[in-house]
Design a protein that fits this description.
Largest sheet: none
Number of helices: 3
Structural class: mainly alpha
Number of domains: 1
Strand content: under 5%
Oligomer: single chain
Order of helices and strands: HHH
Helix content: 55-70%
Radius of gyration: 28 Å
Shape: elongated
Distance between the termini: 61 Å
Length: 96
């Protein structure tokens, strides 16, 4: 069985320094790159837009009454088979 090659401390320190310098250069390059363009808003159906407006009205009413504890519950079933959960999450996640 061949003996493994032994590396001196200087070699290990030099390799570590090169890796650190490469990481610092990569970080600087990533920080200097421009941010990606924001995603355009997806079109929302009329039913979902009405539902979102109703939610915002109820949130404003709760805030005006002083019940703004950050939690509201709704018991409205959507008309038809259309589900607005993705649109609601997209709309209100921008507030966070």
């Amino acid at each position: 069985m061949p003996k493994p090659l032994r590396m001196s401390r200087r070699t290990w320190v030099a390799a570590w320094a090169v890796l650190c310098a490469a990481a610092i250069a990569a970080t600087a390059a990533l920080n200097a790159s421009p941010a990606p363009d924001p995603q355009p808003e997806k079109p929302v159906s009329a039913e979902c837009a009405e539902y979102i407006a109703d939610i915002e009205t109820q949130l404003a009413k709760a805030k005006q009454e002083g019940n703004d504890d950050g939690m509201l519950s709704f018991t409205r079933t959507p008309v038809g088979a259309y589900d607005c959960s993705d649109e609601i999450l997209d709309h209100f996640s921008a507030d966070r």
